[in-house]
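Final report, Chapter 2: Outcomes

The project's central promise was a pipeline that accepts a single protein chain and returns its three-dimensional structure in a standardized token representation, suitable for archiving and comparison. That pipeline is now operational. To close this chapter, we reproduce one record exactly as it appears in the project archive, with the input sequence first and the structure output second.
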Amino acid sequence: MVGAGSGEMSSTSGTVGMDAQISCQVNGNEMRLQQLIGAVVNSTSEQTILELVNFLDSVSNSIILEVETEESGKMAFETLDKIHQFVCVPWLNQEVIDMLAFELPKAVTKLGCLSPRCSELTKKIIDWFVGHCSPRDMLSVFCEALGSPSELFVIPSYFVPLLVGLSKGGAFFQRGVSVADSQLNIFFMKLYIFYTIHMFKHDCNVPIPY
């Protein structure tokens, strides 16, 4: 009985210790994210944007490789929330927006895999880019992200926001091109979606109806 009680106490203290460690990590990540966002605002260099993207990738990778807890889920959601607030500020210039558009969708989609709340926030970020950037560029970005998920993120919740963005971007794109170009691009877009679903089904052994 004593041994069982000691084991239970040890397990509880271990959980508390892990939560405290993650809580400190959340605070540290929040400060670092604010610094990186500030650097992007004050500079239009690709390097600052890549540093922001690398940070987001490190957060998503670390969370998905560890045992998910309430604190880690909170960290993912708050990271996405700050990114959403950042891109939606009215004074962000178009040059920075366009540079972010080529890098952020894939990074935030990884974080979106971590919970339904994160996925919804990811869709909002992607919707924002679709409405503020070149539809042609966004189609290219979404196709590239769909075709190159890392091994950790070959799961449905990674693909869904990108496919939604791809369909919305396609609708915007059709408004500014000729009928022939529109039909051709729709054909390639559908072909790419078919290819992505096929590869997902093959890699994950998931029965997905065509």
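Archive annotation: The chain has one domain: 2-204.
This record, like all others produced under the grant, will remain available to the consortium after the project formally closes.
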